């Protein structure tokens, strides 16, 4: 079968290789991958890839071999999955605890856009707690996670302000009900909750927008710049603010995938896909995703690439 493997070349970060099909563990199903969606964090890993790296966490496709232990869906079932790695390939072995069945109404491209960003959004909002009637600030909002957080938070009754780099990147967020600004400094606080994903100097500025006793959840560092906080400056800001580190990871993922699929099926969640193309274009798409030239998610379709 064909698999995309890292090259170590920033301009062409992956290339096709002919490799054996994966052999599933007893609790894994073998999936014929129809679509996959890279994440911006994966593009960073490709800059200096470790030798064993097999990229690919977000896939949708068809079960061609059911799990030997009897768990999970049977042969011929359409699924979306979140394997630990190895999804940028014609076939992927996925733990059944991290799969869920797809209804006919959801195509593989939309399904592939759900896992990492959607699971992150769900778990992030659970961390933030009830949002009805609360003022929320979301930084770095124009990626896949930001679109899901915005739609879910607004749907839960939050008054959400989203920070994006440009008006174009904020258009869909405004349609979803967010107040869009293009600099953290322009956000009109105070906020009950700040969801901060950029790091660098932006975090300290976002922290100054939190109300006394409020919460800042730090879930990313898209700027790739470390955060520096000054204790004495904090003394002049809001008191008793909680800063909470957040990382989405932790299997099993099946129940969260089921929740996301249900929300899409009900019309309450709409994957924002800025590009859908054949996986022959993966290398170029990864560069554009890394350089933030794609709004929302990018989805690659596996048919016909050689």
UniProtKB/TrEMBL annotation:
Residues 9-300 form the Enoyl reductase (ER) domain. The keyword Transcription does not apply. Keywords: NADP, Oxidoreductase. It holds the Pfam family ADH_N. Gene3D superfamilies: Medium-chain alcohol dehydrogenases, catalytic domain (3.90.180.10), NAD(P)-binding Rossmann-like Domain (3.40.50.720). InterPro entries: ADH-like_C, ADH-like_N, ER, GroES-like_sf, NAD(P)-bd_dom_sf. Coiled coil: none annotated. One of its GO terms (molecular function) is NADPH binding. This is Enoyl reductase (ER) domain-containing protein. It comes from Streptomyces afghaniensis 772. The lineage of its organism: Bacteria, Bacillati, Actinomycetota, Actinomycetes, Kitasatosporales.
């Amino acid at each position: 079968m064909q698999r995309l493997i890292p090259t170590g070349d920033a301009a062409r970060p992956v290339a096709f290789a002919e490799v054996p099909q994966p052999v599933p563990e007893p609790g894994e199903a073998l999936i014929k991958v129809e679509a996959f969606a890279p994440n911006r964090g994966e593009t960073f890993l490709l800059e200096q890839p470790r030798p064993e790296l097999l990229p690919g966490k977000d896939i949708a496709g068809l079960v061609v071999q059911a799990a030997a232990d009897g768990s999970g869906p049977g042969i011929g079932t359409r699924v979306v999955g979140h394997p630990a790695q190895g999804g940028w390939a014609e076939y992927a072995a996925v733990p059944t605890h991290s799969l869920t069945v797809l209804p006919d109404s959801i195509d593989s491209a939309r399904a592939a856009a759900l896992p990492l960003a959607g699971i992150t959004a769900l778990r992030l909002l659970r961390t933030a707690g009830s949002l009805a009637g609360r003022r929320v600030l979301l930084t770095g909002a124009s990626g896949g996670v930001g679109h899901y957080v915005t739609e879910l938070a607004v749907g839960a009754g939050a008054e959400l302000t989203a920070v994006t780099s440009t008006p174009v990147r904020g258009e869909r967020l405004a349609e979803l009900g967010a107040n869009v600004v293009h600099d953290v400094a322009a956000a009109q606080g105070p906020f009950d909750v700040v969801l901060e994903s950029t790091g660098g100097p932006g975090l300290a500025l976002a922290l100054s927008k939190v109300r006394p006793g409020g919460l800042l959840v730090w879930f990313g560092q898209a700027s790739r710049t470390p955060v520096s906080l000054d204790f004495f400056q904090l003394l002049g800001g809001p008191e008793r603010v909680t800063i909470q580190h957040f990382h989405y990871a932790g299997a099993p993922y099946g129940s969260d995938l089921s929740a996301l699929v249900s929300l899409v099926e009900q019309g309450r969640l709409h994957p924002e896909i800025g590009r859908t193309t054949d996986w022959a274009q993966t290398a170029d798409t990864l560069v554009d995703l890394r350089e933030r030239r794609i709004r929302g998610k990018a989805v690659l379709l596996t048919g016909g690439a050689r």
